[in-house]
Design brief:
Blueprint lengths: L24 H6 L9 H13 L1 H4 L1 H7 L2 H10 L10 E5 L7 H7 L5 E6 L2 H11 L5 E4 L12 E7 L8 H11 E11 L4 H10 L6 H10 L2 E6 L4 H5 L5 E7 L8
Parallel strand pairs: 1-2, 1-4, 2-3, 4-5
Antiparallel strand pairs: 5-7, 6-7
Helix pairs in contact: 5-6
């Protein structure tokens, strides 16, 4: 946002993301609504079936064709999200290992990596694709992670939050397993037209950028910076929400 020249310049501070306009009717029409029509248990089984089936088998190829794989690699290579100094990483929703593959290249030697996914089949695919003994693979639900409080100093969560009925349910659990001062790389589907189309394809919901920011604030999760895959993505507000978040030291998890 450009400041008017006649206005005094306030002290520098982190600003909230610019509010997005209310979703257009066509966005609401296109977006998948299953998550609001059935119980979470039923929806979870549907998601497990989707990713365990043919769509999940094509996920790595789809990520390559959509450029998510090379662009994700660039996030770590260019230190847009810096892995240096990190010792324990949890990758939630590992899928076919799209984020873990570049982590193995750019994280410090000796860094432990845990791949977590709801679908055991996706974890098997990731293990085969990564061809590495470094990652540990754990089948688990983001709503109930089987890890102790503060176990990780870095968490990555790529396009998983949209598979929950409410963002706070997953973010609270991420905040629990993240150590104070630890960082989160969060990627999720935004409430844009492209996001609505994605939700229909992958049976998920979308999130509003400003709403997500406020939920993070409430949980003691500070948005450090918004990240864009490229200048073109930033110009057209494409690629969904991608943000680096820090868990504030001494913050409590407010409900």
């Amino acid at each position: 946002m450009i400041r008017k020249a006649l206005l005094p310049t306030p002290k520098k501070h982190k600003r909230e993301p610019v509010a997005r306009p209310k979703r257009k009717i066509i966005h609401r029409f296109v977006e998948n609504k299953l998550i609001g029509r059935v119980s979470y248990e039923q929806y979870r089984e549907k998601v497990r079936d989707v990713y365990g089936g043919p769509q999940g088998a094509l996920l790595a190829t789809a990520s390559l064709l959509s450029l998510h794989t090379p662009l994700g690699d660039r996030l770590f290579r260019e230190r847009k999200f810096d892995l240096r100094g990190v010792r324990h990483i949890l990758d939630i929703g590992s899928g076919a290992g799209q984020l873990v593959k570049p982590m193995l290249k750019y994280a410090d030697p000796g860094t432990s990596i845990v791949c977590c996914d709801l679908s055991p089949k996706m974890l098997r695919r990731a293990r085969t694709r990564l061809k590495s003994t470094v990652p540990q693979h754990v089948a688990a639900d983001l709503m109930n992670l089987p890890f102790a409080d503060g176990s990780f100093d870095c968490v990555t969560c790529g396009y998983v939050l949209e598979h929950l009925p409410e963002a706070k349910l997953g973010l609270r659990e991420i905040a629990r397993v993240l150590a104070p001062g630890g960082r989160l790389l969060l990627l999720t589907t935004e409430d844009s037209f492209s996001g609505a189309f994605t939700s229909r394809l992958w049976c998920c919901r979308t999130y509003n950028r400003r709403e997500l920011y406020r939920i993070c604030q409430d949980l003691g999760l500070k948005w450090c910076k918004e990240i864009w895959f490229s200048r073109m993505h930033q110009l057209f507000r494409a690629g969904g929400i991608c943000v680096e978040i820090e868990k504030l030291a001494g913050s409590g998890l407010r409900s």
